[in-house]
Specification:
Layout lengths: L6 H43 L12 H39 L7 H28 L12 H14 L3 H11 L1 H8 L3 H25 L1 H4 L4 H16 L3 H22 L5
Amino acid sequence: MIENLSVEELIKRDRVVLLLALAGITVLSWLYLIHLDRSMAGTMDMAGMAGMSMPMIGEWRDTDFFLTFVMWSVMMVGMMLPSAAPMLLTFATVTRRRAQRGGPYIPTGIFLAGYLTVWTLFSFVATLAEWRLHAAALLNMQTQIIAPRLAAGALVAAGIFQFAPFKNTCLSHCRSPLDFLTTEWREGWSGAVRMGLKHGAFCVGCCWMLMVLLFVAGVMNLLWVAAIAAFVLVEKMFPRGRLVSWMGGAVCLLAGLVWLLHIPRAR
């Protein structure tokens, strides 16, 4: 049956299957986050009704660390897969055309595995950061929001980062899938993994400071999570994404400076 399809028909079929798969994974990720958010809210409500206090600062068990790591990993999938879709679709098209010319066909999932590996490593680092912030009493365990002065500083840092040359370099690679594949192409399954890892590294380099802002309004504040995910998507796909990046940076910088000025100084 497949042999009777033209190259363009195969490419069209690949794109439809890939888009459905990405949509399904993204939806499942968000459903898990919504379930987790409701479970956490229910737990806090029950604790409040029973007159119980939340665990003391620093009381992290192995299961707490693991579940937080899972939460971060799933959240990164839900946030980043939509913005990675153009790269994955381009990879699927390129590898299909190469296969029709006699080259090996490489499933797009191999590239995706490399990409998600980088974000999984980032999730581990974010979990470590959350753990240490808890231990240092700099993160409210109920709201998952960092201390005001630290939050304002994070906004200022994120605003400055949006104008940094490093940010622009990483964003350029994320915004140009065909250019990335042309310059970074590696043969075989191992090559696809390496390309996925490298694209993931550029993606983390572009967006890591935006992910730090999750600590500003609450790690599990789903409206904030969705807003950052939408900004990342527009930043990468909008024709004037660099302008969007600068505008976001200006807003963060201004908000952070105003917040810092209004924080009461310790006596």
